[in-house]
Amino acid sequence: MTEAQKARVREQFGESAAAYVQSPGHAGGPDLDALVAWGRARGARRVLDIATGGGHTAAAFGAFSPSVIATDLTEPMLRAAREFAATQGRPGLRFLAADAEALPFRGGTFGVVTCRIAAHHFPALLAPLREVARVLAAGGAFLVEDILGHEDPDCAAFITEVERRRDPSHVRAYAHREWVAFLRAAGMTVIDEKILEKSRPWEHWTARTRMTPAARAELERFVLDAPARHREAFAFRVEDGRIASFADRLLLLRADRD
Fold this sequence. Notes:
The chain has 258 residues and is α/β, with parallel strands linked by helices. Helices cover 45% and strands 26% of the residues. It is built from twelve helices and eight strands. Strands 1, 2, 3, 4, 5, 6, 7 and 8 form an eight-stranded mixed β-sheet that branches. Strand 4 (110-116), helix 7 (126-135) and strand 5 (136-147) form a beta-alpha-beta unit. The chain is globular, with a radius of gyration of 18 Å. The two termini are 31 Å apart.
């Protein structure tokens, strides 16, 4: 299952690399600003960005951190991220293909590790978190952001199905209590947190994953046929019988290595 999931990630993001570099929601916003503020306060000289995607987080940290290494599972995404970083005047960033479950670094190498809007693609959460704790220096900080899983099981199952139909590489979003428990099991303690609401314009959100018109229509019908309380949980906005947007929440955590 793990290797099959990683293959799905490579397939999905290898073809969509440019779209993620250009995505406004990934390029910046209050969520990235919050991670950067935490990072500046830590002042770490060596930073690792896991599952860098379009490279936006790595580039932002490269503005003030002397050494930033960005890793990703998907080679085309790394190439796109490297090109993006060059446009931002960050030629010193290093990019490396690496699996989050087997990071190719010695223990205690980094003062800060970041991971932004990626963990919902991991086959499981604990193994990557243990790797994060291993490569962090004592007292180092893990700055992580991901979609916040809904506490209601039915609502969580509904949005997971929506996400998977749109992007087959989606596994699931984790609830706050799950994040805290997994981080603790990996040897890290949550020190600070933020929750931000994120609006998702439907057309842009579905187009970024290269859905066919038929698949998009089927997904829209699935949402419109769902119980009203499921749509209300994610603020689905419907105009003239078509979905215009919905909203979910982003969980941002700063967890220090014990």
